Amino acid sequence: MTDEFDDALALANGPAAAAARGAGRRGVARPRTAASPTPTPAPADPLAAVQDEAPAGQVRPAWESARATAYRAVRPLPPRRLPLDLALGHTLAAPLTALTDLPAFDTSAMDGWAVAGPGPWRLTAEGPGLLAGSPGAAPLTDGEAVPIATGARVPEGATAVLRAEQGDAAHGRLHGASPQPGSDIRPRGQECRSGTELLPARATLTPAALGLAAAAGYDQLAVRPRPRAEVLVLGDELLFRGLPHDGRIRDALGPMTGPWLTALGAQVMVTRRLGDDAEALHEAMSTSRADVIVTTGSTAAGPMDHLRAVLSRLGAHLLVSGVAVRPGHPMLLAELPGGTPLVGLPGNPLAAVSGLLTLAEPLLRALADRPSAPQRHARLADDVRGHPEDTRLVPVELPEPGVAMPLAYAGPAMLRGIAAAAALAVIPPGGARAGDRVRLLDLPAT
């Protein structure tokens, strides 16, 4: 666990809770309860839209504390073995150690001739000679040479490879300047020896990592699987095609939530559109086979916001009920009976993105046993107005290294700013001035 999450959790729940990580189905751990601070009335917030209001009377944790709670809420999924062609994006469950020397034998780094000793040399073979993948040739003795291709096994007794452009072969003889011993030979074990650790546990398997695993002799790998996610889109006001009309709006969260979760490391099983049907929501939540459920909308206390009531009916345990962050403060994190975590995203688009990066991102990292991302910072190119008490997440572009330019169209219901952004700047309560150093949240790319 990183210091970032340990410190934040200790601030949120006290020293005892920072050490707790109990077990549940799918690895869910219920944090210990700490004494809650005395609630303070939230001031009027000119930055939040009416739809972004959280239920009244709740005590909302600080943004960093909520992220720590999400990371601590689950244990990694059980490891499984996958063939290399299915392991991309998964996390190594154990260190990757070489099963062989790399290279496994001395190989030629160039096309030319394998030579023994100083020249000139007598050719022991005509034509293409030794090719990559061909069995070993007869040993060479001083004064002998054999044609060799890049990647071919160097015969025993060879002292160097003479490049093709540096030699002249005719009538069974090879002439050229004698190369230094070892020239253009990749010696056995140059990259690693058998048993060397190539990648640590918890490393994400990239295309290059899969190539390394194959070169090191692996057909399968022990991995933490990508968490399976199910997306439930809520709201009768949503249209799924065509132009907005008659008071109804296009669903922006359905098309983007699944891809965001995929980019954050999940395997999205399905996106279901349930409207404002409490019974359909109850059935979906109680029968899901996902490792994490993500809902969009219905996190506040409006007349058609059924999510909290359905969670209560199911006997779910609320781990985070609102967060001191704008936009998105009605977001929630719950543990369903049996241990499945549920992330509730607000219905406003930018507020939903805030919820994804505040709660879903650390939760998915914990399920996949991935460490937290290293923190990155930049200096603001302009002033940013803040909320009096809450953290604010603001879309920014990065016109040059170390500089963050705040973007317009950053309201809770807007996507125009985030669509053009390279990152979100974390603005502390009270705001920040031009030149202030602020933390950046990188936006995932598929």
The biggest beta sheet, please?
6 strands, mixed
Strand content: 25-35%
Named CATH architecture of the largest domain: 3-Layer(aba) Sandwich
Number of helices: 9
Rough shape? elongated
Q: In the residues, how many domains can be counted?
A: 4
The CATH class assignment of the largest domain is Alpha Beta
Pfam family, one: MoeA_C
Region (Disordered): 14-56, 170-191
EC number: 2.10.1.1
GO cellular component, one term: cytosol
What's a quick, concise take on this entry?
This protein has 446 residues and is α/β, with parallel strands linked by helices.
Write the layout of secondary structure elements.
Blueprint: H1 3-13, H2 15-19, H3 63-72, E1 80-83, E2 91-92, E3 96-97, E4 107-108, E5 112-115, E6 121-123, E7 144-148, E8 160-163, E9 167-170, E10 173-176, E11 185-186, E12 197-199, H4 207-215, E13 220-224, E14 228-234, E15 238-239, E16 249-250, H5 253-263, E17 267-275, H6 278-287, E18 292-296, H7 307-314, E19 317-321, E20 325-326, E21 332-335, E22 341-345, H8 349-367, E23 376-380, E24 391-400, E25 403-406, H9 416-420, E26 423-427, E27 437-442
Parallel strand pairs: 6-7, 14-17, 14-18, 15-16, 18-22, 20-24, 23-25
Antiparallel strand pairs: 1-13, 2-13, 3-12, 4-11, 5-7, 5-8, 6-10, 9-10, 19-21, 21-22, 23-27, 24-25, 24-26, 26-27
Organism: Streptomyces marincola
Keywords: Magnesium, Metal-binding, Molybdenum, Molybdenum cofactor biosynthesis, Transferase
Function: Catalyzes the insertion of molybdate into adenylated molybdopterin with the concomitant release of AMP.
